[in-house]
Amino acid sequence: MATTKWSIDPTHSEIGFKVKHMMFTNVSGKFGTYDATITTDGDNFENATIEFSGDIASIDTANADRDGHLRSADFFDVENNPKLTFKASSFKKIDAGDYELTGDLNIKGVSKTVKFPVEFSGTMTDPWGNTKVGLSIEGKINRKDWGLNWNSALETGGVLVGEEVRLNIELQFVKQA
């Protein structure tokens, strides 16, 4: 069977995350510049090859000082580690629209295997004749697993920045001719 390539549609995608601030509220952010591709056997997404890269310099939390701190050596160290990457090792169908995505997430030169549930929308043709597919990914990672260790103790107890990062990713791909 012929392989099919799918490219990210960045105007209909978002790579978002949330982290607890001061132990009780969430700060949200996103990556503005990224790339992703999927390679499938025909239009069958089971065991698809999925690759993603995000530009650390494009991190946006709606606060320039915080974004600068996240880009610094305290966190992502963008000068030495300009991208984070993900490469799937498995994309397994669980039932009708539910899949499980497993792969290696590389941040700051540290690679760890992660597993996320994925809501798969199936394929759809847009008004201009393009075949599209949508994926919604939600999951959690511990930022310390990738050496993102910076924190500050609070006088009242606890820490300024939570360790758990919740991912909220909406991806739309377009089938390539």
Q: What are the SSEs and their pairings?
A:
Elements: E1 3-8, E2 14-21, E3 25-31, E4 34-41, E5 44-55, E6 59-60, H1 64-71, E7 83-95, E8 98-107, E9 110-125, E10 131-142, E11 161-175
Protein name: Polyisoprenoid-binding protein YceI
Organism: Flavobacterium nitrogenifigens
Domain Lipid/polyisoprenoid-binding YceI-like: 5-174
Features of the shown structure:
TTHA0802/YceI-like_sf, 62% strand, 11 strands, 8-stranded antiparallel β-barrel, single chain, Polyisoprenoid-binding protein YceI, Lipocalin, mainly beta, Lipid/polyisoprenoid-bd_YceI, 177 residues, globular
Description:
The chain has 177 residues and is mainly beta. The protein has a single domain (3-175), classed as Lipid/polyisoprenoid-binding, YceI-like (Lipocalin), CATH 2.40.128.110. The protein contains one helix and eleven strands. It has one helix at 64-71, and strands at 3-8, 14-21, 25-31, 34-41, 44-55, 59-60, 83-95, 98-107, 110-125, 131-142, 161-175. Strand 2 and strand 3 form a beta hairpin. The model has no long low-confidence stretch (mean pLDDT 85).
At CATH level 2, the architecture is Beta Barrel
Q: What is the tally of helical segments?
A: 1
Distance between the termini: 15 Å
**Integer count of domains:** 1
Q: Strands of the largest sheet, in order across it?
A: 1-4-5-7-8-9-10-11
The stretches of 5 or more residues where confidence is low (pLDDT under 50) are none
CATH level-1 class: Mainly Beta
Q: What is the alpha-carbon Rg in Å?
A: 17 Å
Number of strands: 11
| The named CATH superfamily | Lipid/polyisoprenoid-binding, YceI-like
Shape assignment: globular
**What is the CATH third-level topology name?**
Lipocalin
